[in-house]
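Limitations

Structures in this collection are predictions, not experimental determinations, and the ligand pose is part of the prediction. Treat each record accordingly. The example that follows, with S-adenosylmethionine as the small molecule, is included so readers can see exactly what is and is not provided: the inputs are given verbatim, and the output is the predicted complex.
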Amino acid sequence: MRPSEHAYIPREALGIMTARTLENSHPCLLGLLEPGMAVLDVGCGPGTLTMEIARRVDPGGVVGMDVNPEMIAAAEEASPPGEIPNLVFYKGDVCQSGWEAEFDLVNAARVLQWIADAEAALRAMARAARPGGLVVVLDVDHTRAEWSRPPAAWSRFYQAFLEWRTAGRLDNAIITRLPRMCETAGLADIRTTPLIRTVRAGEAAFLRVAGTWRLVADSRGRQMVAAGHLGEAERRAALEAFTEWMQTEDATQTIHEACVAARRPAAARR
Ligand SMILES: C[S@@+](CC[C@H](N)C(=O)[O-])C[C@H]1O[C@@H](n2cnc3c(N)ncnc32)[C@H](O)[C@@H]1O
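Predicted complex:
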C-alpha cells in the first residue's frame, strides 16, 4: 500500500531528514533518553534519528516504523538489519498499529502534522507506551513560519503549501492542539517546550533549515502542482526566487516548533 498523497515523501526530499541530529532537530528527546529504554520511533523516515536513539539507549531495544516502504528501504540501507543489534525497522501505519504497553518511550518527530487523523495516531502511541512510560511528540506550526523580506513568488508558493495541506485535512498549527489531544488520549503530566528558532544567512544551521524549504519546493512542490494548488511555472519561479533569497546577506528564517512530552498514567485510565 502506498501512503496517502500528503504522507508520501518523495526520495528527493530525503536530504531534509538525513541532515538531522537529535541535537539540531529534537533536543528535548536528548534529555529523556536513558540506556536500557525500549523506544518506538513512529514515522522514522530514513532512520537517521532512530539510529542515534538506538546508540543512546543501548542495550534497550528500538523499533523504527514508517508507513512509506521507500523510507524503510532507505533506513535499512543506512543500517542493514542486524548491523545495530538493538534496532529494527518495519513498514506500518501508526493508526493501524497494535502495540500494547510495550515501550518506555514512544516518539514521533514531525509526523502527526502529516496525518489527517492525528488523534487516532496519538491514541495508538499512548497505547504503545507502558503504564508510566512517555509519549513524545515534536511538531510544527506552519502558520507562523517567517522569512525576512520573502520574494513574492515564495509567498505565493507558501500560501499554496498551506492550502494544499488544508485540502488534505492536515492541521497547519497542530502544535497548538497537541496538549489537548494528549489529555483526550488519556495522557498525564503534559509538558510543552516551545522551540522557536531564527536562523541567519552565514550560519551553518541556515543552510540546513532554509535549505529544507528549497527541497520542499523541489519535491512536495511537484505534488502541489499535481493536485492543482500551484502552476508548474509558479513552482519553478518560487524555487529560483528562494535560491536567490538564500544568498542575500541578511536573510533570516524563523520556525515555530514545539515538543510535547506526556506520561501514560501508571494506573491506566482508558
Ligand atoms: C517529516 S518526516 C519525519 C521523519 C523523522 N521523524 C524526522 O524527524 O526526521 C514524516 C514521516 O512520517 C511518516 N508517516 C506519515 N504518516 C504516517 C503514518 N500514518 N504512520 C507511520 N508513519 C507515517 C512519513 O512517511 C515520513 O517518513
